[in-house]
């Protein structure tokens, strides 16, 4: 695909992030909220945010990746003090290295924040999500409410 840039998300990106989620939902790959308020509150302006990065081509956001602190009693059941990651790429931009490029930025932010590890909680039926995180170096470490949880050791280090 033509080149794209990765940068930190700003409040004005909530609309574009919502559109990414809507395209994923339209492809039958998402059932949760996709609206602009959700994008703003859950990703761009979340108080637990460490970094939310967007991949941009021209005016369009191709995808984004969120890294947040795992606070006590977080909904993913991740160990407190770890990071929790989420990755969402437009189906029309999938399998072109966007997720991989976003993870480079996320990993830098994780290192700068002193995180030891990152949790990725994925539905067991989400084959592409499981394959993506495995390709980034995440390994299975637990299950939570029927989801598969993979972890990445930041301190051990591994280039995606
Ligand atoms: C899963 C997802 C994040 C992957 O993003 P992407 O930008 O398409 O991934 P990349 O192109 O950077 O792929 C990196 C590597 O991941 C693996 N991978 C990615 N998509 C894959 C797929 N559909 N099947 C198998 N392996 C896949 C491959 O090893 C790939 O490397 P390669 O293309 O050189 O073989 C994207 O498809 C997506 O957003 N899906 C919907 C939302 C979702 O399920 N998110 C994950 C759970 S939070």
Layout of helices and strands:
Blueprint: E1 5-8, H1 14-26, H2 36-44, E2 49-57, E3 60-69, E4 83-89, H3 98-113, E5 117-122, H4 127-135, E6 139-144, E7 147-153
Parallel strand pairs: 4-5
Antiparallel strand pairs: 1-2, 2-3, 3-4, 5-7, 6-7
The structure holds coenzyme A.
Coenzyme A is lined by residues 24, 29, 86-89, 94-100, 122, 126, 128-129, 131-132, 135.
Protein architecture, described:
The chain has 160 residues and is an alpha+beta fold. The protein has a single domain (5-153), classed as Aminopeptidase, CATH 3.40.630. It contains 4 helices and 7 strands; from the N terminus they run βααβββαβαββ. The chain has helices at 14-26, 36-44, 98-113, 127-135, and strands at residues 5-8, 49-57, 60-69, 83-89, 117-122, 139-144, 147-153. It has a 7-stranded mixed sheet with strand order 1-2-3-4-5-7-6, sandwiched between helices. α1 crosses α2. It is globular, with a radius of gyration of 15 Å. The two termini are 19 Å apart. The model has no long low-confidence stretch (mean pLDDT 95).
